[in-house]
Design a protein that fits this description.
The complex is a heterotrimer of chains A (about 90), B (about 400) and C (about 325).
Chain A: H1 3-34, H2 36-46, H3 58-61, H4 83-88
Chain B: H1 2-21, H2 23-57, E1 64-70, E2 73-75, E3 77-78, H3 80-86, E4 91-104, E5 109-116, E6 127-130, E7 140-143, H4 145-150, E8 158-162, E9 168-177, H5 182-185, E10 188-192, H6 193-200, E11 206-207, E12 209-214, H7 220-230, E13 234-238, H8 239-277, H9 281-292, H10 297-330, H11 333-340, H12 357-383, H13 387-392
Helix pairs in contact in B: 1-10, 2-8, 2-10, 2-12, 8-12, 10-12
Chain C: H1 5-34, H2 42-80, H3 89-93, H4 99-124, H5 132-159, H6 169-173, H7 190-214, H8 217-247, H9 266-287, H10 297-333
Helix pairs in contact in C: 1-2, 1-5, 2-4, 4-5, 7-8, 7-10, 8-9, 8-10, 9-10
Chain lengths: ~90, ~400, ~325
């Protein structure tokens, strides 16, 4: 077998693995979507505005409804110090 | 056309066997490249996954939220504002809400407590057990899975929080949110608005913010503008703004990661350049012999191009698959702590990786293209060795 | 807004391209000063080896630029999700004064880079490298364009602020509340435009066919000029008229949304033939100049014929693909 064929086979196998994984992912996504109706009702009825991803600080728990000042308003020269603040930093 | 294809296939064959002949050197390049792509791809996939879940999960988020601003800070909003908002044409309903955070000093967790003015119209499918409190009922609470674990309730169904004056406010748990909604409710305590005011020591004429429902979703922006005209001391947040905020926040996050990883990429590029430049004497001999056999500079460049492309492609596909597995099956274990920081309550929701063609294209431009560019000049150097001196030496 | 993977990728690509082209420009200057095919000196031998490096560098650079055009449009679409008021890529491009000029520079650049590659292929088809000077003069002209590209990119990203409110494409392309005409490209009566557009298309086919059969300079000139005008007209018609049929929405006239998954990526199948036909249609007229150099004449003639044939084929493909949603609308969703 010539090397190019081997190489093509290798690439094809890898791509197939990738496709299989993403097919599985799609199935999980569909399963995940099944609970979406309930979550829609929750956000609407409870008026939730944010995802519960990082609960360490007020502004990283609710980034959508806190303003840019919050990370620095504990006292006048306070520096932002929560690790997630680095990633959740307010808009530039 | 046939000849052209045949020529390139043969060059590819040659390139692959020459890659194989120098396994040691090329494998090290391959591993580092795969690692760099893996890290970059992980961040891109993680961001995309979170972004998609934010956009889907939050599509029913309140249309308009109104907050009261005093001295640049958000303060409680007087209920008298409700009437002014209700007068605006197109507003369906305004409901006040009291919410805030309770810090659990024992475990160090931040819990979100939310008091609703009306009993939510929710079926029991969103709850793992129990029900919501009825209108006018006192002292009820519906809690998220995280609160259940954090307060260590076990089979007990009552708990209490401290009021600001350190007296205890008891709650009896009427329901527990189902784990399917962990991404929204993990750290939540839902109660009635009066209980919320009681807990936070808030005046009965105040609320934390007001939720506004509009009749026609197309009018959100218009009504939001009218509200901010009528009530200039408020901050008005609309549903599209919330979704855009999430996109901006997540993009910033992955951009930040990308900046960090660009330095890794740069280091890798320098390494690849260096590996490609350092030529062993037998390589020089090889190229000289090829040239004597009638190969020309562009042919040698082509072989080098195929070598780099083959290596880059395999590294790209492997790195991407590894990243996919990392996000999909290991819940982004490497980055999770960065993302969650010192959070005590860590929701155990499932990350479903979302791979889009555009992300793969972005990844391609961030990794393969710089690598290909870095190998041109060394390849040319090797292709233009002086034949006679290489063979003689 | 530089802290974003898309901005970073765009800057990275620009930086790499600039580096590659500048290295090649060094060779260009050397070639223009010292090139002497008759000489047998060490310098000439080195130069001949160096032009391989520079041409490889330039080809990479130009390929990167083409990729960056696509990346730019996709990035704009991504940015639109963060700019309040921008609903799609158009809104993001109009968010400040540099977005649209950058797009035009990138598109114009593609044609110049393509011309360079065609010249290069012609040049190396002869052992005497007859076009080497011309090629490197063109390269030195491309370099400033690339600098402008990078400068505009930096200005655009610099000015992009997630808080700025931009109008979404529904407002930019559709008729606003005031009844004023707000179109990226101005507006004509729809039937007149479409009629004009299709008759121009028919004319182009005739000119192209004649050029392919007779291979005369005057016909290449006619076809090339008509094609250049058609390119502008086609973009206009596509944005102002045909796009509505693709989206099935009368006021959605975005030229970029059709590249997205929601519309089956049809944009790629429309733009690719359009760029191909325009490029291959204009080239024969330009490379005719090279015919003057005796040895290249047969190669150029063959290439011209091939280019016109490709151009005609791409034109037909474009005509079918771009009219397909319109025809579908006429016959299926029809007015009657």
């Amino acid at each position: 077998m010539r090397p190019a064929t081997l190489f093509a086979l290798l690439l094809l196998t890898l791509t197939a693995v990738g496709l299989l994984a993403s097919l599985h992912g799609r199935q999980r996504a569909v399963a995940e979507r099944a609970g979406q109706a309930g979550r829609d009702n929750l956000t609407r009825e409870l008026g939730l505005t944010d995802l519960c991803l990082a609960t360490e600080a007020r502004y990283t728990r609710h980034p959508a409804v806190t303003d840019d000042l919050v990370p620095f308003m504990d006292y006048p020269v306070a520096l932002e110090h929560f690790p997630t603040g680095l990633f959740w930093a307010p808009l530039p | 056309m046939r000849i052209f294809l045949e020529k390139h296939l043969n060059l590819l064959d040659y390139a692959l066997s020459s890659l194989w002949r120098r396994k040691g050197k090329n494998l090290s390049v391959f591993f580092v490249f795969t690692l760099v792509i893996f890290l970059l791809a992980s961040f891109l996939f993680l961001t995309r996954s979170l972004l998609v879940s934010a956009q889907i999960t939050l599509r029913q988020t309140p249309e308009i939220t109104v907050q009261h601003m005093v001295a640049g800070r958000q303060e409680s909003i007087p209920l008298s504002y409700m009437g002014k908002i209700e007068d605006i044409f197109g507003v369906h309903q305004v409901s006040p809400r009291v919410w805030g955070y309770k810090y659990n000093e024992v475990t160090g967790a931040n819990i979100t407590v939310m008091g609703l003015s009306r009993s939510p119209l929710l079926g029991e499918e969103v709850l793992a057990e129990g029900r919501f409190g009825a209108q006018g009922e006192q002292g009820w609470a519906v809690i998220g899975q995280g609160v259940l674990a954090d307060l260590d309730l076990g089979s007990r169904r009552s708990f209490s929080f401290f009021r600001p004056d350190l007296t205890l406010k008891p709650f009896s748990v009427r329901g527990i949110f189902a784990p399917q909604s962990n991404i929204l409710t993990y750290d939540l305590v839902i109660t009635g608005i009066d209980d919320g005011r009681d807990l936070f020591g808030l005046d009965p004429q105040l609320a934390t913010d007001l939720l506004v429902e509009v009749v026609n979703p197309l009018e959100i922006a218009t009504i939001a503008r009218k509200i901010s005209q009528v009530l200039p001391d408020t901050r008005v947040i609309t549903r599209p703004q919330i979704l855009k905020t999430y996109q901006a926040v997540f993009s910033w996050r992955s951009g930040f990661a990308a900046i960090c990883l660009i330095s890794a990429l740069a280091a890798f590029i320098i390494m690849a350049w260096d590996k490609a430049s350092g030529m062993a004497p037998e390589e020089r001999r090889e190229i000289s012999i090829l040239k004597i056999l009638g190969w020309q500079t562009p042919d040698v460049l082509m072989v080098r191009f195929w070598e780099s492309l083959a290596l880059a492609l395999v590294a790209f596909v492997s790195g991407t698959i590894l990243a996919y597995i990392h996000i999909g099956y290991f819940q982004a274990g490497l980055f999770r702590s960065v993302m969650m920081g010192w959070s005590v309550l860590r929701p155990g929701f499932d990350l479903v990786p979302v791979v889009s063609g555009t992300d793969l294209f972005l990844l391609f431009s961030l990794s393969i293209l710089p690598y290909l560019a870095a190998t041109i000049i060394p390849a040319w150097r090797s292709a233009s060795v002086a034949t006679d001196s290489a063979l003689r030496g | 807004m530089f802290v974003n993977p898309w901005s970073l990728a765009l800057c990275l690509l620009s930086g790499i391209t600039l580096f590659l082209i500048l290295v090649a420009c060094k060779t260009a200057v050397k070639v223009l000063r010292h090139w002497d095919p008759a000489a047998d000196s060490q310098r000439q031998i080195e130069l001949e080896s160096e032009i391989w490096l520079s041409s490889t560098l330039v080809q990479y650079g130009l390929a990167f630029q083409i990729i960056s055009l696509l990346l730019y449009v996709l990035a704009a679409d991504h940015f639109s999700g963060m700019l309040s008021g921008a609903m799609c890529a158009t809104g993001a491009l109009l968010a400040n004064d540099y977005g649209l000029p950058l797009l035009i520079v990138k598109i114009a650049g593609m044609f110049l880079y393509g011309l360079w590659i065609v010249l290069h292929q012609l040049d190396i088809s002869s052992e005497k490298y007859p076009l080497v000077r011309l090629k490197y003069i063109l390269l030195l002209l491309i370099a400033p364009l690339l600098l402008a590209d990078t400068a505009l990119l930096i200005l655009y990203l610099q000015g992009l602020n997630p808080d700025v409110i931009t109008s979404c494409c529904a407002v930019i392309f559709g008729e606003g509340d005031k009844g004023a005409v707000q179109n990226l490209l101005g507006r004509m009566g729809s039937q007149t435009t479409l009629g004009f557009y299709y008759s121009w298309l028919a004319l182009l086919f005739v000119a192209g066919f004649l050029a392919w059969r007779r291979q005369e300079i005057i016909l290449y000139l006619l076809y090339g000029t008509a094609m250049a005008l058609f390119f502008v007209l086609a973009l206009h018609t596509l944005i102002a008229q045909l796009s509505s049929y693709i989206y099935a929405m009368p006021f959605h006239n975005c030229p970029f949304c059709m590249l997205k998954r929601e519309y089956g990526y049809i944009g790629f199948f429309i733009y690719l033939p359009l760029f191909a036909t325009a490029f291959c249609g204009v080239m024969p007229m330009l490379i005719h100049l090279c015919r003057a150099r005796g040895i290249l004449a047969p190669t150029v003639a063959r290439l011209q014929k091939k280019l016109v044939a490709v151009s005609l084929f791409a034109l037909a493909l474009y005509a079918v693909l771009s009219s397909y949603p319109y025809l579908l609308y006429l016959f299926r969703g029809g007015e009657g």
